[in-house]
């Protein structure tokens, strides 16, 4: 098996390297959500659109699971500020 670069950035938004993800798995993280909580991988601006599959592949390789058997992580839509006026019902004060 080829040697892996532990400094390879997997999550560019949160600057999480492959070594950090592997360390989280070695410390007991067994799901994408647990890796996300320990490393913040997938919590950046793209919400995991860029790194989710890479993290999933690392988890599958390290735990012997099939990628299709890994539960997806929770997703939250990007947050944008909204003026309170936009939420108010017209005519109500």
What is the average of the pLDDT values?
A: 88
Number of domains: 1
The CATH level-2 architecture is identified as Orthogonal Bundle
Rg over CA atoms, rounded to whole Å, is 18 Å
* Outline type: elongated
Strand content: 5-15%
Biggest β-sheet description: 2 strands, antiparallel
Number of strands: 2
Helix/sheet category? mainly alpha
Q: Could you name the CATH topology?
A: Arc Repressor Mutant, subunit A
How far is it from the N-terminal to the C-terminal residue, by CA? 67 Å
Uncertain spans: none
Write structural notes for this entry.
The chain has 93 residues and is mainly alpha-helical. The protein has a single domain (9-87), classed as Orthogonal Bundle (Arc Repressor Mutant, subunit A), CATH 1.10.10.1100. Helix content is 35%, strand content 5%. It contains four helices and two strands. It has helices spanning 18-26, 32-39, 52-63, 84-87; strands spanning 9-11, 16-17. Strands 1-2 form a two-stranded antiparallel ribbon. Strand 1 and strand 2 (16-17) form a beta hairpin. Helix 1 crosses helix 2 and helix 1 packs across helix 3 (52-63). The radius of gyration is 18 Å and the shape is elongated. The relative contact order is 0.16. The mean pLDDT is 88.
Distinctive features:
93 residues, mainly alpha, Arc Repressor Mutant, subunit A, 4 helices, 2 strands, 5% strand, elongated
Helices, strands, pairings?
Elements: E1 9-11, E2 16-17, H1 18-26, H2 32-39, H3 52-63, H4 84-87
Antiparallel strand pairs: 1-2
Helix pairs in contact: 1-2, 1-3
Short description:
The protein is mainly α and 93 residues long. Helices cover 35% and strands 5% of the residues.
């Amino acid at each position: 098996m080829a040697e892996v670069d532990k400094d390879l950035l997997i999550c560019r938004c949160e600057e999480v390297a492959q070594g950090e993800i592997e360390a989280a798995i070695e410390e007991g993280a067994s799901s994408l959500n647990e890796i996300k909580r320990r490393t913040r991988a997938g919590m950046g601006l793209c919400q995991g659109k860029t790194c989710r599959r890479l993290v999933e592949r690392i988890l599958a390789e390290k735990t012997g699971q099939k990628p299709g058997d890994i539960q997806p992580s929770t997703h939250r839509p990007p947050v944008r500020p909204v003026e309170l006026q936009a939420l108010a019902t017209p005519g109500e004060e």
